[in-house]
Design brief:
This protein is mainly alpha-helical. It is 62% helix and 4% strand. It is globular and about 45 Å long.
Length: 178
């Protein structure tokens, strides 16, 4: 099933009244703009991450986080995710997962690491056994959580979300003019 704007809104847990602004005939960029125009930059960021090509999510997330003043734990999670980007193997993915799990998936660093860990592969049980494939939307959900958490530490949450969205727009599929 192809990813539509309404499915992306559902995957990202948008409130029904906000999701109602979107329809499947919209382009990815039009959907994000509709949410911005409605005044919900956080929802726009979440949908942009879900509609972004999967291979762009973790590198872009790392770029966004690296561009901000962050604490040591967030930096550690960023470094774990960047190590996975350089060497995309199961040991690095499991290392990112262990980092995130060790912090109970709380905080910017844990969420950035989790986005790398959940970009592919399987979910693991407490003993490291594979239990199920990672759901396609999970990487975008935790990447959005990382950026929303980061934005919440800034004086103007909405402005920070809008800045992230402006950066994300260039990674969404281009609109075709007729």
């Amino acid at each position: 099933m192809p990813l539509t704007t309404t499915l992306a809104a559902r995957d990202m847990g948008l409130d029904a009244s906000v999701a109602a602004l979107l329809h499947d005939e919209m382009t990815e960029r039009a959907a994000v703009r509709a949410l911005l125009d409605h005044g919900d930059a956080g929802a726009a960021l979440r949908v942009a991450l879900r509609l972004m090509p999967r291979g762009y999510v973790v590198p872009w997330l790392c770029q966004c986080v690296r561009g901000e003043a962050i604490d040591d734990d967030a930096l550690d999670g960023l470094l774990v995710a960047e190590a996975w980007l350089r060497e995309r193997g199961e040991p690095r993915r499991r290392g990112a997962l262990a980092f995130a799990a060790g912090r109970h998936y709380v905080g910017i660093g844990a969420l950035v690491a989790a986005s790398a860990a959940w970009s592919e592969g399987f979910l693991l049980d407490g003993e490291g056994r594979e239990v199920a494939p990672v759901a396609p939307q999970l990487m975008a959900v935790v990447a959005a959580a990382a950026l929303l958490t980061l934005a919440s530490t800034r004086p103007d949450f909405d402005a920070q979300c809008r800045a992230f969205v402006a950066s994300a727009m260039g990674l969404l599929p281009p609109e075709i003019s007729e």
